[in-house]
Here is the input.
Amino acid sequence: MIRVLLVDDQAVVRAGFRMFLELAGGIEVVGEAADGAEAVRLARRLSPDVVCMDVRMPGGNGLIATREIVAGDPPVPAVLVVTTFDLDEYVFGALEAGASGFVLKDTDPDDLVHAVRRLAAGHGLVDHTVTRRVISEFARRRPAAEPAAGPAADLTPRETEIVRLLAGGLSNAEIAAELVVETSTVKSHLGRAMTKIGARDRLQTVVWAYRTGVASPG
Here is the structure.
């Protein structure tokens, strides 16, 4: 059973999300919060697997709440940013704060369920259309950087290459085709790379790649 915390200042939105998620089966909404501060308190008390986080709320925004939740003691729930604006400045802040995926508030209910299940499984939403646009814009706005020492230097050349292709928006299958290897080989290399850099999921691996200069816009 996937445990979900809903965070939105509009009760009708929370009620709609609760209905969609619980009707899907295998998902339980364990709590609701109307602002960021309440979200942080409930995340620590309820230990959900996924937090569906609005970014614009009176009395505490989702950006601050995302950063505090992700920085908490393990196990850390994955944060799914649910927003009206796919290129909202708050979304970029949430991306850097540690969000694992994004969906729009008017998304199809099945897509919301799919997103929650992917985040609960540790996959993130790097292949989602909205997420790709956010990553592209995020990368464009960041200044160029030299590859960082430390964790970046610990990656093998093949791991670095795979992370760079992932940051370019390629799926595992597309990376495998590009490198002429099996998809299982890509998964294995990517898993080791994520462990080395301490990334929780694919999306945060992409963020790390741009932040360290391992990947660059274009």
